[in-house]
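Protocol step 4 of 5: obtain the predicted structure for the target chain.
Materials: sequence only (see below). No template structures provided, no constraints applied. The aim of this step is simply to have a reference model before the mutagenesis design in step 5. Sequence pasted as it appears in the construct record:
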Amino acid sequence: MVLDRVRRVSQGLGALLGHGYLAVFVTRAIYQGPLKGVCVPMMSCFACPAAITACPIGTLQHFITQGQVPWLLIGTLVLVGTLFARMTCGWLCPFGLLQDLLYRIPMPKISLPPRFAYGKYAALVILVVLLPAITKTPWFSQLCPAGTLTAGIPWVLWDPAGAVAGRPSLAGSAGTLFAVKVGILVAFLVLFTAIKRPFCRAACPLGAILSLFSKVSLVRLHVSSSCNGCGQCQKLCPVDHKVWEAPDSGECIRCLACTRCRHVQVGVAGVEPSPVPGPIVTE
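Step 4 output (structure tokens):
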């Protein structure tokens, strides 16, 4: 349970890292400093009024629409992926935190079929790469539920820059695209209460990118030879992953919740951890 509390604190700090410019609520002036050009390895919308940093997926689309290669971004994602795989999904991403919290609502729960995992790769290839390259429009950002929640809705309802400039509210200009964006967000919010992290598992292109490094990352999970496949690690896992079957799977977000079972341990690639005595923890 200590690990869970530490992870919640880390996720809260991740939210502040991406959306912590609280002065905007007083000054109504968005942050335009040097950190706005820094991409953090989580879903953090650049357009949020409180944004301090940039979203890697939004940045990637921007460069693609301009016909350029974002070498610094690519290097950053390769470094993060090689070291930690999808660990930032489990420890930093505020949209992941939202999914974890909403899943706690007492609602009927649904298992997501494994084939839906391919959805995030489709989102990466089609919405992040191909369509932006062809149409010169950042389509994933246009539809992203995280962006709608932290940027689209706040700008339409509040429009801080417009309020300062004396312009009319953007609420009257919200059209069909905005309605579609909100519909997608609402659908995901409902799913969050019934399915473990459906956005991370089936729609997140950043998760798709980082998952490519899971088998070569420095931080790894190890399952002991004495594991009997009881399934407790899957019950503890926020993405419903069968850790005992594939501890280095691209679906694993390295949240380490499964290490509450003594059969699963975290370690470094190439180094077998020592056995840890103790009971298997169940929920």
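Step 4 remarks: The chain is about 50% helix and 5% strand. Residues 176-194 form the longest helix (19 residues).
Proceed to step 5.
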